[in-house]
Structures are given as structure tokens and as C-alpha cells.
Amino acid sequence: MIDPKKIEQIARQVHESMPQGLRDFGDDVEKKIRQVLQSQLTRLDLVSREEFDVQTQVLLRTREKLALLEQRISELENRSTAAASAPVIPPVENLD
Question: How far is Cα 25 from Cα 30, in angstroms, rounded to an integer?
Fold first, then answer.
């Protein structure tokens, strides 16, 4: 899911950007920031880049298949329309 090292890096950056008075509380503040970040990021229901790329490829293949099926349906409809508009030739009666 989310790389814990990235969360630590973000927590460290937030901690360093805080006013000196708050930073003096030390590791407790940074740990709390890390916990809050982890909690909030988990709630976002994010996906990894790898999973995103896989789903993108699946979507592209699905779109290609859909386009082919739409084309095939169009061709079948055209054939059906052409067959329906063709003149009907009455059967020849047997004169025997």
C-alpha cells in the first residue's frame, strides 16, 4: 500500500516545519504526526502505482474489445438491413 518510509519522511517534514515551541516536544509529536498520517492515508483507500497500471491496461484491452464488438454489431445490422430491403422473388410454380 503506502510506503512507510514515505510516511516517515512526510511526518519528519511536518515536524520540522512546526514552530520551535512545538518541536521541543520531540519524538512524541513526530510519532503522533506519523500515526495521524497513516490513519488518514489508510482511510483514503489508495491503490499502489503497480495496481493502477495493471487496471489501466485491463481498461485499455476492454475498450479495444468493445470497439471491435460495436463494429461487428454494426456490420451485422447493415447486413440485416440489406437483406430486408432486397426484393423478394416469388417461388416458381411447378407446371407439371
Answer: 9
> In this structure, which amino acid lies at residue 20?
Q
Q: What is the pLDDT of residues 25-39, one digit of tens each?
A: 666 777 787 788 888
Task: Classify 21 as helix, strand or coil.
Answer: helix
- Reference 31, options 13, 2, 8, 3; nearest CA is 8
First to last CA, the chain: 85
List the chain domain ranges: 4-43, 47-79
Sequence-ordered list of residues with C-beta below 8 angstroms from that of 49, at least 6 positions apart, any chain: none
Which residues, in sequence order, are CB contacts of 66 under 8 Å at separation 6+?
none
DSSP summary character for residue 86: S
* 55-91 pLDDT per residue, tens: 999 999 999 999 999 999 999 999 888 877 767 677 7
